[in-house]
Design goal:
The protein is mainly alpha-helical. The protein has helices at about 5-25, 35-40, 50-60, 65-90, 105-110, 110-130, 140-150, 155-165, 175-200, 205-230, 235-240, 245, 255-280, 285-300, and strands at about 100, 100-105. The relative contact order is 0.13.
Length: about 300
């Protein structure tokens, strides 16, 4: 069986399932219209790369029997990502006015509502991971909660954002820049892969290790490409403000390596990711979606 996947055909039912579950999980009827701000932040926008990585990894190592756990993990990951964007865009952080092609949440609903919407999205993520109906084994719930908490906390995404804010106007070394982005961006992408695998029991340690190497390389590649797009794409294509990193004097891979060097580094990281997938020993058929998503990360234009 071929390992070549029609990515659009594979993605669409998964995207539909994620969108439907997210919509069902966030009720518009809520205290002081908080649910409306939450829905605005999450629904009808974004690439959904992180939930797709969860689902593709679960499929690579398991089967349809693990679909409920994987869907919940995928949606939890997207909620954490969405909450981080809501807070990241606020005036106390990056003070951005455009996200996913529309006004940011604090512009649309006010700063207080945006702060609360982000808080509520974060906690809802862990609610989705811990259903009380017996549909997800307690061991899987515990593993996913632990992974997501670490990846999104001070040793992961939040810590990376703290370094980012503290590094404005500074010139970081390549090692320092890599560490910042492994936390700020890479931690959630790595966690997406790890949670997908955690939804399936008894995955061999060698496979888990190779998948982790894949997630690490892919997470860093994503950020390098992001830095490139910040200087080569326009705001309409990106769906967010172009050129904001340079304007804010933030350390980036383009500033460190130059545009050609950053593009070459992204390609090298993509090759590392592909090699890590090969090292899993899984069949080409099982790895097809993960390979296609990795290619999408490097070749994307937004």
């Amino acid at each position: 069986m071929s390992g070549v996947v029609d990515l659009k055909a594979w993605m669409q039912p998964h995207l539909d399932g994620v969108e439907r579950f997210l919509s069902e999980s966030i009720q518009a009827e809520s205290p002081a219209a908080l649910g409306q701000a939450m829905r605005y932040a999450v629904l009808d926008g974004g690439k959904r790369l992180r939930p797709l990585l969860v689902l593709a990894t679960a499929e690579a190592v398991g089967d349809a029997a693990h679909g409920v756990a994987a869907l919940r993990a995928a949606c939890a990951m997207e909620l954490i990502h969405a909450y981080s964007l809501v807070h990241d865009d606020m005036p106390c952080m990056d003070n951005d006015v455009l996200r996913r092609g529309k006004p940011t949440v604090h512009v649309q609903f006010g700063e207080s509502q945006a702060l609360l919407a982000g808080d509520a999205l974060q906690t809802l993520a862990f609610e989705l991971l811990t259903p009380q109906d017996g549909s997800v084994a307690a061991s899987v719930q515990a593993a996913c909660v632990a992974l997501l908490a670490r990846a999104s906390g001070y040793q992961g995404m939040a810590g990376g954002q703290a370094i980012d804010l503290a590094s404005v106007g500074q010139r970081l070394s390549e090692d320092q820049l890599r560490q910042m982005h492994r936390l700020k961006t890479g931690a959630l992408l790595l966690c997406s892969v790890q949670m997908g695998a955690a939804c399936v029991p008894d995955v061999p340690d060698t496979v888990l290790a190779a998948l982790s190497r894949f997630g690490q390389a892919l997470g860093l590649a994503f950020q390098v490409v992001d830095d490139v797009l910040d200087v080569t794409a326009d705001s309409a294509t990106l769906g967010k403000t172009a050129g904001k990193d340079e304007a804010a004097d933030k350390p980036t891979y383009v500033a460190l390596m130059g545009l050609a060097g950053a593009k070459a580094y992204a390609d090298a990281l993509a090759a590392q990711a592909m090699q890590a997938l090969a090292d899993t020993g899984l069949s080409d058929a099982r790895l097809g979606a993960l390979r296609a998503l990795a290619a999408l990360v490097v070749e994307r234009n937004n």
